[in-house]
Design goal:
The protein is an alpha/beta fold. The protein is 38% helix and 20% strand. It has 15 helices and 20 strands. The strands form 5 sheets. Strands 14-15-16-13-12-17-18 form a 7-stranded mixed sheet, with helices on both faces. A 6-stranded mixed sheet has the order 9-8-7-10-11-19, with helices on both faces. Strands 5-6-20 form a 3-stranded antiparallel sheet, with no helix packed on it. It is globular, with a radius of gyration of 23 Å. It starts with 12 loop residues before the first strand and ends with a strand. The structure holds adenosine-5'-diphosphate. The site of adenosine-5'-diphosphate has 14 residues, from helix 7 and helix 8.
Length: 483
């Protein structure tokens, strides 16, 4: 791998400021999803290393929590600056292990740095309250304190920003963190650990362990020292982690699956709606939890939307993300590809028509053609399950009530999108959608300043914004008498 800063490519885990192998000496292979070549190996850590990382994070917590918000802010800012300075190398590492086009990888890294910048500033504003006490001679004081050691389990679709989004908030308020990145994308996590060390975080404050997800996850969730689990991933794994965390009653944040509706009303700005659908559906080859998965278009404008949208999709350039001009990479692995193949076949079997795509890509490997399906049945699997791939199913609707009902007919509740210029409708629909995020006339709602998170089986807790700090804080009520 051609990097300007070769030290960013680490094949060891990072515990207590040291680069370590697994105690068993075992390793895990990491693949490039574009070429299917092996990039390298990382330690296959187990319970032993996880316990060590937790103990070291706990020791570090005793002093890190005593530092001032200003001191933590200075180190965080430095970390964010180093990430920004090294954006080209970090993007290359990400594209090689994750597959997204280089420009998208750069975008993610710069976005990841904005979480750090935001929380470096926001940490100085963790205010408490003094409440008027109705009882004579008494006072009520409310303070906020860091919850303690945090276990952060992160996914492969955003290998950088899911780590910074969680850890910047946790570290800013005085928590220490043990990160378990997805096995497909450990190098992006280890690279930000190199920069965390350089930024000056004391040993044990930020740790990254690679290896068996279920073993590490079990220890992180059941170890009583860990006081908080922050997870981004599938609803299925989220439920396991919730159950496991129950035994020690941990605070939890769960950013789980989504099944975003994207509604185009008859008064929408057509070109804007097409552009928004394209962004929200095909970013990261459709592998984001806020990707629009069900596109509902009003019957009066359905044919026009289908034509224009299909035309835009035909311009997507699929290939190896390292190459110039590529706008869509491969899927992460074989099982993801199989799910996409299965969803499209099932949709076609239940009546859908293929407007474009509909098959594996001639490039082979994990590539799939950007696909638009029209006339999709509400009984098709794709209507109920998250596809996590470059497939856009279109549905026709005729009234607001009907489409709101269809949009809410899912156990998920993360992001939703709609396009309209009618102010009354905008308020009504925004309030009626059962989602944590409602994005109106905007295909890309995620930035550091906003509370990202879902309702229903999409999870709990919020990341980003000032609300994201609450997930790493406990509230203490101090009762003062005898005054
Ligand atoms: P996806 O389906 O998007 O791959 P997963 O929920 O399977 O999402 O994975 C998200 C993260 O959860 C990854 O870091 C993965 O290694 C981890 N993970 C998967 N299974 C478990 C488990 N049983 N316990 C803890 N972590 C897990």
């Amino acid at each position: 791998m051609e990097l300007n800063n070769k030290s960013l490519f680490k094949q060891k885990c990072f515990i207590n400021g040291e680069w370590l192998e697994s105690s068993s000496g075992e390793t895990l292979e990491v693949n490039n999803p574009a070429s299917l070549e092996i990039i390298g190996n990382v330690p296959k850590c187990s319970i032993t290393e996880t316990k060590k990382a937790i103990d070291d994070a706990n020791k570090a917590f005793q002093t890190w929590k005593e530092t001032t918000a200003k001191e933590r802010s200075v180190i965080l800012k430095k970390w964010g600056e180093l990430i920004t300075e090294n954006v080209d190398d970090l993007a290359k590492i990400m594209t090689i292990e994750q597959g997204k086009p280089l420009a998208e990888a750069k975008g993610e890294i710069l976005m990841g740095a904005t979480y750090i910048e935001f929380y470096a500033e926001e940490a100085k504003r963790v205010y408490g309250d003094i409440v008027p006490d109705p009882r004579p001679g008494k006072r009520i004081v409310i303070i906020k304190q860091p919850v303690g050691v945090v276990g952060a389990i992160t996914p492969w679709n955003f290998p950088n920003s899911m780590i910074t989004r969680k850890c910047a908030a946790a570290l800013a308020v005085g928590c220490t963190t043990v990160v378990k990145p997805a096995s497909q994308t450990p190098y992006s996590a280890l690279a930000v650990a190199v920069l965390a060390k350089e930024a000056g975080f004391p040993d044990g404050v930020f740790n990254v362990i690679t290896g068996s997800a279920s073993e590490i996850g079990k220890e992180l969730t059941s170890n009583p020292i860990v006081r908080k689990i922050s997870f981004t991933g599938s609803t299925e794994v989220g439920k396991i982690l919730l159950e496991q965390s129950a035994s020690t009653v941990k605070k939890v944040s769960m950013e789980l699956g989504g099944h975003a509706p994207f509604i185009v009303f008859e008064d929408a700005d057509m070109d804007e709606a097409v552009a928004g659908a394209l962004q929200s559906k095909f970013r990261n080859s459709g592998q984001t939890c806020i990707c629009s998965n069900r596109i509902f278009v009003h019957e009066k404008i359905y044919d026009e939307f289908l034509d224009k949208f299909t035309n835009e999709v035909s311009k997507i350039k699929v290939g190896n993300g390292l190459e110039d001009g590529i706008t869509s990479g491969p899927l992460i692995d074989k099982s993801s590809l199989e799910k996409v193949i299965n969803h499209v076949q099932d949709a076609v079997n239940t009546g859908a028509k293929i407007a474009i795509g509909g098959d594996v890509h001639s490039l082979g490997g994990n590539y799939y053609q950007p696909t638009v399906l029209s006339n999709v049945s509400t009984k098709a699997k794709i209507t109920f399950e998250e596809t996590f791939g470059p497939v856009a199913p279109l549905y026709k609707f005729s009234s607001d009530d009907e489409v709101i009902k269809m949009a809410n007919d899912t156990p998920y509740g993360l992001a939703s999108y709609f396009y309209s210029r009618d102010i009354g409708r905008i308020w009504r629909v925004a309030e009626a959608l059962e989602y944590g995020i409602v994005s109106i006339n905007n295909g890309l709602p995620t930035i550091a300043e906003v509370p990202f998170g879902g309702v229903k089986e999409s999870g709990m807790g919020r990341e980003g914004s000032r609300y994201g700090l609450d997930d790493y804080l406990t509230i203490k009520y101090i009762s003062m008498g005898g005054i």
